[in-house]
């Protein structure tokens, strides 16, 4: 009697996956370099644009470009460096504008903005975990997961902006001290993950949040006038240099990625 042949067909995962391919960038050295540049760039370009033109017009234009960039990214169905980092760049710019509008136009203190964004982000992570079972960026393979991912990215940028301004201005630490503070804080999840076996997912998102206030503090320090304890280079020139640096970083990433 012939023995039954084992079924070697791949098993279908319990959670449906659209393509099995991540639609967003994965955490590599190049990712963190581009992320840091995008955070600083968003701060500088936002500051420059709201002074160069009418602030209302600048915010409306920033929102429109953010929507276009996000729509481009969402229709890619897989990670494409140029689409992804364009969306991140516009999140950085518009996220800064949103945080500044909440503070300047609505009179919302930075501490309140930070706490509000933190609560919203915590709620979003809870929803994401409950509906999808994971917050791992390697598993952002469906439209719903990607929408949750981008909602988290927007909130991390807004929260990081408020946190950076809170320490630099409200708490009077200044930009240099804020840079040092957040740079040291980023080392906590990095060391925890590499040396003490901390979870990869919480370590990633903690570092992701903290890159924003570091980048924003660096941009403010370079661009703000000397009377405000900055270097005085101006937000326009600083923003332009950072845009060029980000384009170069993405070009290097795209060149290394054969699917881009």
Automatic annotation (TrEMBL):
It comes from the Bacteria. Keywords: Membrane, Transmembrane, Transmembrane helix. The chain crosses the membrane at residues 56-75, 82-102, 108-127, 147-166, 172-193, 235-254. The keyword Nucleus does not apply. Pfam families: DUF347. Signal peptide: none annotated. This is Putative membrane-anchored protein. It comes from Lapillicoccus jejuensis.
